[in-house]
Design a protein that fits this description.
about 45% strand, about 140 residues, binds calcium ion, 4-stranded antiparallel β-sheet
Length: about 140
């Protein structure tokens, strides 16, 4: 499950091997559930992850170049969708955005930036946590076969 502070959700549960959860009502982390022997245990993977977004790059005209980005679950690449499917549309890339923040506040810092990872808008936080928004586009292996 992917949860963000703004209450937004993405439809990428299967694509993300882990969760983003709010712990203690304030500090957030990215964690994953592992099966160790016959036990299930949660492990923190990355502290301070505040938002994670994923979109897929779609080739709509079979020329091996991305024509547009859509959210996971978009009917454009789903042949079983009732409407919106584009024959031949293929997922070529995945674009991932992360907004991470410091675990503790910094004296004298006022974060008034507007954060908009992917097509989500977190707005201004107006607090004293240091944040960083990063993104990466990943070419999917064998997407062009
Ligand atoms: Ca194209």
């Amino acid at each position: 499950m992917v949860t963000t502070t703004g209450g937004n959700r993405t439809g990428v549960v299967a694509a993300v091997a882990g969760t983003i959860a709010e712990a203690g009502g304030d500090i957030q982390d990215m964690s994953q559930t592992l099966v160790a022997g016959n036990r299930i245990q949660d492990q923190e993977v990355i502290p301070g992850v505040e938002n994670l977004q994923i979109q897929f790059g779609i080739d709509m005209n079979e020329d091996n170049t991305v024509d547009r980005y859509v959210n996971p679950g978009d009917p454009i690449y789903d042949p079983s969708a009732a409407a919106g499917y584009v024959p031949g549309a293929r997922v070529l890339t995945a674009r991932v955005w992360l907004v991470v923040r410091g675990v503790t506040t910094e004296f004298g810092l006022q974060d008034a930036r507007n954060y908009a990872p992917g097509n989500a808008n977190m707005g201004q936080m107006n607090d004293s946590f240091r944040r960083l928004q990063v993104s990466k586009t990943i070419l999917l292996r064998n997407a062009r076969i």
